[in-house]
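For the sake of transparency, this paper describes our internal protein records without simplification. Because each token names a local backbone shape, the row as a whole describes the fold. One such record is reproduced below, unchanged from the form in which we store it.
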Amino acid sequence: MTRPERGHRELPHTADIRIQAWGPTQESCLSEAVAALVATFADVSGAREQRCVEFDLGADTEEEALLGTLDEVIYLLDTQDVVPLGADVERGAARLRVRMPVARVQDVDIVGAAPKAVALHGLRFSHETGAWRCAVTIDV
């Protein structure tokens, strides 16, 4: 069985949630990580975009880029009651530019516990066997 060029999945974990994502580029892997995180707590398949959130992210390492991007998803959920419908990530000279179309929480189906934080333990983001791969544990 071959894995698709890009994608994500939830992995078994004892207490929290562990997600894995992959893609041909860092940017596509980050986009898939956002989709993986959202899929653990919301079904956004029928949701309509309310607006688009854009932010720049400075990160010295791949792991910092992953952490910062997923932290923003949790921040948006906690402070603005919105859920990303996806993510478009572009790499600039020294920063990442992230665009996330979002929907209101009340307009999506909640399917799991809301994420509270990204755990640093076990966080990884690297280029392996021709693709970018990341894995992270989410505290719920």
The chain has one domain: 22-139.
